[in-house]
Design brief:
The chain is built from 18 helices and 15 strands. The N and C termini lie close together (about 10 Å). The structure holds adenosine-5'-triphosphate. GO terms for molecular function: ATP binding; hydrolase activity; RNA binding; RNA helicase activity. This is RNA helicase. Its main location: cytoplasm.
């Protein structure tokens, strides 16, 4: 394949590409001076306005979380260590390397193995001994999505339940109806060999007769309904709850009202109730909330990922406008063989335009867009993973926080910016971090179409202190080896 790139070096690409009859490679390095300052300013302004106007997508963390659960088939590989801050440093609570060491009830051990788990994940290894200790310990735990948090607290709940007592003993809050159902499924699977154990869903639409008392042992639901069931409707006696779990705390607080409702529920629980809070991320707001709902916590945190771009080759291509960016993209495809690429756009509109244009050029393109139902999005990602499509075009908002494994090339058709138009370094890292994983080398190509975006690129470069080079025909041999 390196030969193909070699043949076209310094020549018009159009003649050599079967699927994409496009222009000259010189488009790849248009001179920066070509962008007239006044035109440039105007372009930027219009872009910013129109982008705002058609940026209808709102970050929906609950949908992203659900999507991750739907597309995930196994544990996310994570090499980071966890940090354990024990409330009582004198109490020796060791981590466990096997489920046997936890002395789980036999029917739970059976459930764990029936789910195909051989040994605890990193977060489980550290959290389970704390959660199953006598007396039960409170816990705030943060670990990346997909690392086994749900399974951990489900085991804790199932271990504490006394089936002979026919009333709710464990209460679990989820941010949405769908996420509550997903967690419910894990409870059902893991408790499969514990048939006397019953589960109720406190979600909107699940209507019970007034005056009724619930006999199920575990209640899982959304904050609003759980609050009603505990206070106004009195279906649950909160004073009898032994384990309170607050799942997906980061998603929870992103929803208006959920934080207050969760705190109100927590205030109704007995003092000796075990409080457990889980979150995939740990920004300040989550931490503040966690401290309000979990008194005297033990804390388990996944150590921050080292921001490393060492295995990723980063380039930029200078263009004048959207069409030229498309042209440059086609040129790149014509010049090298790309196994699988993800292309990020700023808006839905650009993403669907680009997907259509690429399809016209004969590419097998998948479009992941915010207007799709979560199930549809999961299907698109699945097909892409299976290699049915080689290019996935998506928007920033839609793809943030979604686990798509290794791709060989990431293209920023638009650079990531925050709502104020400043460089979004975190998103940049997250996007291009999809390539260059597991010791492989990765390739990231940034399309720059104005002085403004050049400025953004420079700031990103400074932030990471890592050179982003201008893509040149001389680089094609090198990048072909990475991209293919
Ligand atoms: N010990 C284990 N061994 C093997 N697979 C596991 C283990 N624990 C969990 N899994 C599997 O890994 C996947 C992710 O686990 P889980 O949903 O518990 O992660 P999570 O951290 O709760 O994710 P989220 O933050 O999205 O809620 C699931 O498919 C689950 O069945």
């Amino acid at each position: 394949m390196a030969g193909a790139a070699g043949r076209i070096r310094g020549r018009a690409l159009g003649r050599f590409q079967p699927a994409l009859p496009v222009g000259d490679l010189s488009n790849l390095h248009l001179k920066e001076e070509k962008i007239k300052p006044e035109a440039n300013g105007a372009v930027v302004k219009t872009n910013a306005n129109s982008e705002k106007a058609d940026e209808e997508e709102k970050e929906d963390r609950a949908a992203q979380s659900l999507l991750n659960k739907l597309i995930r088939s196994n544990l996310v590989d994570n090499t980071n260590q966890v940090e354990v801050l024990q409330r009582d440093p004198n109490s020796p609570l060791y981590s466990v390397k096997s489920f046997e060491e936890l002395r789980l009830k036999p029917q739970l051990l059976q459930g764990v193995y029936a789910m195909g788990f051989n040994r605890p994940s990193k977060i489980q290894e550290n959290a389970l001994p704390l959660m199953l200790a006598e007396p039960p310990q409170n816990l705030i735990a943060q670990s990346q999505s997909g690392t086994g948090k749900t399974a951990a607290f489900v085991l804790a709940m199932l271990s504490q339940v006394e089936p002979a007592n026919r009333y709710p003993q464990c209460l679990c809050l989820s941010p949405t109806y769908e996420l509550a159902l997903q967690t419910g499924k894990v409870i059902e699977q893991m408790g499969k060999f514990y048939p006397e154990l019953k589960l109720a869903y406190a979600v909107r639409g699940n209507k019970l007769e007034r005056g009724q008392k619930i006999s199920e042992h575990i209640v899982i639901g959304t904050p609003g309904t759980v609050l009603d069931w505990c206070s106004k409707l009195k279906f649950i006696d909160p004073k009898k709850i032994k384990v309170f779990v607050l799942d997906e705390a980061d998603v929870m607080i992103a929803t208006q009202g959920h934080q207050d409702q969760s705190i109100r529920i927590q205030r109704m629980l007995p003092r000796n109730c075990q409080m457990l809070l889980f979150s995939a991320t740990f920004e300040d707001s989550v931490w503040k909330f966690a401290q309000k709902v979990v008194p005297d916590p033990n804390i388990i945190k996944l150590k921050r990922e080292e921001e490393t771009l060492d295995t990723i080759k980063q380039y930029y291509v200078l263009c004048n406008n959207r069409d030229e960016k498309f042209q440059a993209l086609c040129n790149l495809y014509g010049a090298i063989t790309i196994a699988q690429a993800m292309i990020f756009c700023h808006t839905r509109k650009t993403a669907s335009w680009l997907a259509a244009e690429l399809s016209k050029e004969g590419h097998q393109v998948a479009l992941l867009s915010g207007e799709m139902m979560v199930e549809q999005r999961a299907a698109v990602i699945e097909r892409f993973r299976e290699g049915k499509e080689k290019v996935l075009v998506t928007t920033n908002v839609c793809a943030r926080g979604i686990d798509v494994e290794q791709v060989s090339v990431v293209i920023n058709f638009d650079l990531p910016v925050d709502k104020d138009g400043n460089p979004d370094n975190e998103t940049y890292l997250h996007r291009i971090g999809r390539t260059g994983r597991f010791g492989k080398r990765g390739l990231a190509v940034n399309m720059v179409d104005s002085k403004h975006s050049m400025n953004i690129l420079n700031r990103i470069q400074e932030h990471f202190n890592k050179k982003i080079e201008r893509l040149d025909t001389d680089d094609l041999d090198e990048i072909e080896k990475i991209a293919n």
